What we know:
The protein has 5 helices and no strands. α2 packs across α4. The protein is mainly α. The chain has helices spanning 3-8, 11-26, 37-42, 47-57, 70-130. It has 2 domains: 3-57, Alpha-Beta Complex (Eukaryotic RPB6 RNA polymerase subunit), CATH 3.90.940; 67-131.
Amino acid sequence: MLRKFEEKFTKYEVARILGARALQIAMNAPILVKISDEKLKEIKYNPLEIAKIELEEDVLPISVKRPMPKKIESKLESERKKIEKEEKAKVDTEKIEEKVEEEIKEQSEIMELAEDTEESVEETSTEEEGV
C-alpha cells in the first residue's frame, strides 16, 4: 500500500509524516481529499487511515529536509576560507611590493636632487671664492 513512498522516503519518515498528519486530523484539521461517507464509516473515522489515504493521493503539504553531514560542510568551508586567505595575502603582498618600489623611486629621486643641489652649491661657492 505505502510501498511506493518507501522508495521516496524512509520508513521512519513515512511514520513521522503519517503521525503528524493524523494528529492534525484528530485536532479537526480539514481533510485534503474527498472521501465518501461509506469509506469513512468503513475506516471508522480513524485519523491514521485518513492520513494514509492523503499520503497515497500525494496531497500532503509536508516536506522532508535531510541535513548534510556537518563534517563535510566544515571541511569544504575551511578549504574555501584557506584559499581566500591565500589569495588575499597574494594581493596584499603585491600591493606592498608596489608601494616599496614607489618609495624606492621617490627616495632615489630625492637623492639625485640632493646630489645636484650639493654640486650646484659647490660650484657657486668655488666661483665666489675665485671672485
